[in-house]
Amino acid sequence: MSKQIAIRDAYGEALLELGKKNEKIVALEADVGASTKSILFGEVFPDRYFNVGISEFNMVAMAAGFAQEGFIPFVNTFAVFMTTRASDPIQSLIAYDKLNVKMAGTYAGLSDSYDGASHQAITDIAFVRSIPNMTVISVSDAVETKKAVEAIAEYDGPVYLRLSRAPAPVIFDENYDFQIGKGVELRTGKDVAIIATGTILHNALKAAELLEEEGIEATVINIHTIKPIDEEIIINAARLTGAVLTVEEHSIYGGLGSAVAEVLSQNYPTPVDFVGATTFAESGDYDELLEKYGYGARTIADKAKQLINRK
Predict the structure, then answer these.
(1) The total number of structural domains that make up the chain
(2) What range does the domain containing 226 cover?
(3) Domain harbouring 122, CATH code
(4) Which among 197, 199, 244, 192 is positioned nearest to 223, based on CA atoms?
(5) Domain contains 206
(6) What is the pLDDT along the chain (311 residues), one digit of tens a residue?
(7) Exposed (0-12), middle (13-18) or buried (19+): which is 217, by Cβ within 10 Å?
(8) Active-site residues: which are they?
(9) CATH number (domain holding residue 292)
(10) β-strand 184-187 against 218-222: which pairing, if any?
């Protein structure tokens, strides 16, 4: 995991390659194309690229129209604005009619660190996960990003794709088999299961290494698809370890942690704890914010040890 690639760069390149393969792909942008990297698509396919200005509501509504005409629109803006300013058409136009629209919410979590809480997205998963007919995907590295873009383009239906701004260690290689709705077990251990989503996955893996130094064996699972969630892999991890810790760069309310707790409460009640946001953050260096607000590897490892004591 030494090499780091910015998720937004990987997304922009993947969208461009997709556009070369499929002329039905169109991209819509809310005047942040240089930030979301959808501009890479726009520079090559200007006739299929639409910058609607700072009007997220209208952008998503336009995407519904494109989908009705047989196009595959990729809608691009910051995650926090996608899921607040465009919440109405996401629910009433796209999800209600199961339209084939792909919403790429970039700068998720705390990754837009220096712009502060107004631009950081810690509630987006909770919103889209609650909407019927919506598929929700949160990617962890550049390889998974490219694989996810290809997969959701083939999938018929509305998708919310959660993307980080920040560089992230590359965890997977090009042989990685990405399947919508299927979790991925990266480590197997009998003492505790750490279930993570998004780029914070690399800190979950570091936490498992710290625990191993103390003789604690941790299972680590990547849940890239928050909805529909892979119930089988979650239940099996709970059976093996008897303790489940979720890790997400999102509020602990309504995100991955809530989804995992719902699965276990209905199928295999297990002690569960959560690493995630409980308050808004501030402006600052991204890595420093992650440490301050409890996303660091050491904090994850310590929470895992506390959870083991509850078994």
Answers:
(1) 2
(2) 184-308
(3) 3.40.50.970
(4) 197
(5) yes
(6) 568 999 999 999 999 999 999 999 999 999 999 999 999 999 999 999 999 999 999 999 999 999 999 999 999 999 999 999 999 999 999 999 999 999 999 999 999 999 999 999 999 999 999 999 999 999 999 999 999 999 999 999 999 999 999 899 999 999 999 999 999 999 999 999 999 999 999 999 999 999 999 999 999 999 999 999 999 999 999 999 999 999 999 999 999 999 999 999 999 999 999 999 999 999 999 999 999 999 999 999 999 999 999 98
(7) middle
(8) 56
(9) 3.40.50.920
(10) antiparallel
